[in-house]
Design a protein that fits this description.
The chain has 277 residues and is an alpha/beta fold. The protein is built from 9 helices and 17 strands. It has one domain: TIM Barrel (Alpha-Beta Barrel). Strands 1, 4, 5, 9, 14 and 17 form a 6-stranded parallel β-sheet that branches. A 4-stranded mixed β-sheet has the order 6-7-11-10, with helices on both faces. Strands 8-12-13 form a 3-stranded mixed β-sheet, covered by helices on one side. Bound molecules: zinc ion. The site of zinc ion has 6 residues, from loops.
Length: 277
């Protein structure tokens, strides 16, 4: 069976890591890197509306601080009512310190993940069962922390589509990994299932439709950021730019639906796989 999941990382607008600082900053606007949330808020509204329109249940990985800020500007609980709520950290911290050079102890990683879960539950009424690390930076310690706390899955790693198959798998500590996919584009270059380059104007929906045609079995996870349909690293996209990006996302999802690919949330997919084992 060909399954897919549409996942949205809901975090601070155009976020960037900064050396020596745990929280993410935002792409400078007139020299100001203070976290902003307006693009993330608007993009979340548009993407949730699109998924509802297509009858697709998505998985939204919430950065807790971003979710808190968004909830002051939009009806977060209602927007996510039909979708899965998962965790994307507290303030978009680099848990492995690969970019920020700030080492976090396993205890600190655990506290951060617990604080995020508590805030997400307070805002949405639901406890996250899944996690995607900011910058997709995970290591064994992060996976250990998640497994210890009873999380069902992590979705931070990337896996090649092999023999026309891509799927979830068990990590040694019992946690399930739901990896993002990597295929080969028409020019023979790697292409990731994260839609980032499309929002930056470097790829077209056709590239991702080509990627969708590379598997016959398993689960392919598409990913984006809520803010990325409103602004990119070049600046705000403007009304027509946003409309274009929303049309792009719709074109990919409609093509997948037309091909008979079945969409579901990651928690449902993980749950079903466990029952079938
Ligand atoms: Zn993120």
């Amino acid at each position: 069976m060909r399954c897919a999941a549409f996942t949205v990382d809901v975090d601070r607008d155009v976020n960037l890591p900064e050396t020596g600082r745990r929280d993410a900053i935002c792409q400078p606007r007139e020299g100001d890197t203070t976290p902003r949330f307006s693009s993330s808020t608007r993009g979340l509204e548009l993407l949730a509306e699109l998924l509802d329109d297509l009858g697709i249940r998505g998985t939204f990985f919430l950065e807790a601080v971003a979710a808190q800020q968004i909830s002051k500007r939009a009806e977060l609980r209602d927007l996510l009512a039909r979708h899965e709520v998962a965790s994307h950290g507290w303030s978009h911290e680099d848990l492995t310190g690969a970019y920020t050079k700030i080492e976090m102890s396993e205890e600190e990683v655990g506290e951060t993940i617990d604080d995020a879960a508590a805030m997400i539950e307070r805002l949405t009424g639901r406890l996250p069962r899944g996690f995607r690390a900011p910058y997709q930076h995970v290591d064994e310690a992060v996976h250990r922390v998640l497994a210890k706390r009873g999380y069902w899955y992590d979705s931070s790693l990337t896996m090649d589509i092999r023999s026309r198959r891509i799927d979830i798998y068990g990590l040694p500590n019992g946690l399930i990994e739901c990896p993002l996919a990597r295929g080969i584009d028409k020019r023979g270059k790697p292409i990731h299932s994260y839609l980032w380059p499309m929002h930056e104007g470097k790829r077209d929906p056709e590239d991702y439709i080509h990627l969708l045609n590379q598997y016959d079995e398993g689960l392919l996870i598409l990913a984006t950021h809520s803010w990325h349909v409103i602004e990119n690293y070049g600046g705000p996209l403007g009304r027509s730019g946003t409309e274009g990006q929303m049309e792009n996302v719709r074109a990919i999802l409609e093509n997948a639906l037309d091909q008979g690919i079945k969409f579901d949330t990651l928690e449902k997919h993980v749950q079903r796989s466990a029952q079938n084992r």
